[in-house]
């Protein structure tokens, strides 16, 4: 059960979205889809398939050339990018913490920007967020350079959730991490998603990660969604050539590990 009504996930819709650039590149070539409130969706595909472009059109880091994106019933184009981003959590690879600010200051930055900086309340909220991302409280006074890569990503998640957004966007959030850290952070994110009742959209090129964490997997190729299926459906096959090729990678690895066990 979600523990905080104020986070409440929202639906996201893409209506005939195209993004093309002056040099003729078509990054997104006509995407229409609806992501239901509360879903954990993974966007997978090979490099250059348009995943990041599609994600960044939700928080207006990129505006579409054609079509409309909406959160709930509200078109994102009607809100200023600044206002929009204050209510959408965004986590990306190498999270971009401010190096001269402590963990506490980094986590609280969104609260401060909206004028919500009463010291006691901020302190309490930061403590709550550190608990949520399973970081020890004593790390609040450290600088980012005094943390491991995985710990820094956890700070990034805490910062993204500080203002209680209902929507969490993640672009390769575990990209730079070792496999063990990646795995435990993935589990932590999924638990946070469930606990807060968020809508989460995660870009990854790792099909295994998508299959293990998401409820629904969208496969992109050359700017189009070529498969839209649950992990179970993807593993069963028949979700199209590109999807099958991506699923074949973790499948072959699992098979090889099984063989090693019996050698
Ligand atoms: N400013 C730009 N001008 C021209 N083409 C661009 C621009 N930005 C992105 N592209 C192109 O748009 C396509 C989609 O890029 P995008 O970053 O969305 O892919 P991606 O699937 O997220 O890739 P990756 O997994 O490598 O991050 C790519 O071919 C990229 O080169």
Please describe the topology of this protein.
Blueprint: E1 12-20, E2 26-35, E3 40-45, H1 51-56, E4 66-71, E5 74-75, H2 81-86, E6 88-92, H3 103-107, H4 109-113, H5 119-132, H6 149-161, E7 167-171, H7 179-196, E8 199-203, H8 207-213, E9 216-221, E10 224-229, H9 231-236, H10 241-261
Parallel strand pairs: 3-8, 3-9, 6-7, 7-8
Antiparallel strand pairs: 1-2, 1-4, 4-5, 9-10
Helix pairs in contact: 5-6, 6-7
Protein name: ATP-binding cassette domain-containing protein
Pfam family, one: ABC_tran
Domain ABC transporter: 12-247
Q: Main beta sheet: strand number and arrangement?
A: 6 strands, mixed
Give me the CATH fold name: Rossmann fold
Q: What is the tally of helical segments?
A: 10
The backbone outline, from C-alpha atoms, is globular
- Give the number of domains: 1
Mean pLDDT figure: 90
Give the helix level as a range of percent: 25-40%
Instruction: Please name the CATH architecture.
Output: 3-Layer(aba) Sandwich
**For the CA atoms, what is the radius of gyration?**
19 Å
Q: Name the beta content range.
A: 15-25%
Q: Which spans of ≥5 residues are poorly predicted at pLDDT below 50?
A: 1-5
Tell me the distance between the termini: 45 Å
Strand order of the largest sheet: 6-7-8-3-9-10
Write out the CATH superfamily name. P-loop containing nucleotide triphosphate hydrolases
Secondary structure class reads alpha/beta
The CATH class assignment is Alpha Beta
How many strands in all?
Answer: 10
Cofactors, ions and other ligands in the entry: adenosine-5'-triphosphate
Question: Helix and strand string, N-terminal first?
Answer: EEEHEEHEHHHHEHEHEEHH
């Amino acid at each position: 059960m979600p523990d905080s009504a104020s986070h409440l996930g929202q639906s996201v819709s893409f209506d005939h979205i195209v993004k093309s650039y002056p040099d003729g590149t078509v990054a997104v070539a006509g995407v229409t889809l609806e992501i239901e409130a509360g879903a954990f969706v993974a966007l997978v595909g090979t490099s250059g398939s348009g995943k990041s472009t599609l994600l960044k059109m939700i928080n207006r880091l990129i505006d579409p050339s054609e079509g409309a994106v909406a959160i709930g019933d509200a078109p994102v184009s009607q809100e200023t990018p600044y206002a929009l981003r204050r209510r959408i959590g965004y986590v990306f690879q190498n999270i971009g913490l401010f190096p001269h600010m402590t963990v506490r200051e980094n986590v609280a930055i969104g609260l401060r920007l909206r004028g919500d900086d009463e010291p006691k309340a901020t302190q309490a909220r930061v403590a709550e967020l550190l608990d949520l991302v399973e970081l020890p409280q004593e790390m609040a006074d450290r600088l980012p350079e005094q943390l491991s890569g995985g710990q820094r990503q956890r700070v990034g998640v805490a910062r993204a959730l500080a203002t209680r957004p209902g929507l969490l966007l993640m672009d390769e959030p575990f990209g730079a991490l070792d496999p063990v850290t990646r795995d435990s952070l993935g589990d932590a994110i999924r638990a946070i998603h469930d606990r807060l009742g968020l809508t989460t959209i995660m870009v990854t090129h790792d099909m295994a990660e998508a299959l293990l964490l998401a409820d629904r997997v969208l496969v992109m190729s050359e700017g189009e969604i070529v498969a839209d299926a649950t992990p179970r459906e993807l593993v069963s096959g028949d979700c199209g050539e590109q999807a099958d090729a991506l699923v074949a990678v973790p499948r072959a690895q699992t098979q090889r590990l099984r063989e090693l066990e019996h050698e």
